[in-house]
């Protein structure tokens, strides 16, 4: 919705790491091991990846960062590199809803097509609509991994709420908290 409305790209560190994993790069191998355990990729790797991405031509008029920054050091590194953050959107979603949403995802590995057993089910349970091939549950979508990731989020990422609220009070950005359980309008 936001990307279409403003004509800007969505930059997802998760997607960038998954592409590196699929390509079998060294960064991809390191990221895969960490992500499969529900851990976050170290800041220096993530920051380098994002800085490289936002320097590309399609980001000249803006971009939407999805899943970045996740830590105060990442936010500081972004700020120190001169990147201006105009808006910060916090989508507030209870943990149990996140577990339900993520553990219900199913993916066609070859194409990346994504389904959800409740919200976007395939026509035939467990099968890709286009090819009929099996769908998988990504290791990082398993309930126990999601719970581990949420624990990491609450420890490392939640402090960003205070960080960006302070940035907004200082006039450096605008901060909005949105109910992430509502439908997109």
UniProtKB/TrEMBL annotation:
UniProt cross-references to PROSITE patterns, sorted A to Z: ADENYLATE_KINASE (PS00113)
GO molecular function: AMP kinase activity; ATP binding
Catalysed reactions, semicolon-separated: AMP + ATP = 2 ADP
Pfam families in UniProt: ADK, ADK_lid
Subcellular location: Cytoplasm
The entry's keywords: ATP-binding, Kinase, Nucleotide biosynthesis, Nucleotide-binding, Transferase
Similarity section: Belongs to the adenylate kinase family.
GO cellular component: cytoplasm
EC number(s) reported in the record: 2.7.4.3
Domain Adenylate kinase active site lid: 105-140
CDD domains xref list: ADK
Assembly with partners or alone: Monomer.
Database matches in SUPFAM superfamilies: P-loop containing nucleoside triphosphate hydrolases (SSF52540)
Protein name: Adenylate kinase
UniProt key word Magnesium: no
Organism, as annotated: Haemophilus influenzae
Classification via InterPro entries: Adenyl_kin_sub, Adenylat/UMP-CMP_kin, Adenylat_kinase_CS, Adenylate_kinase_lid-dom, P-loop_NTPase
Keyword Disulfide bond: no
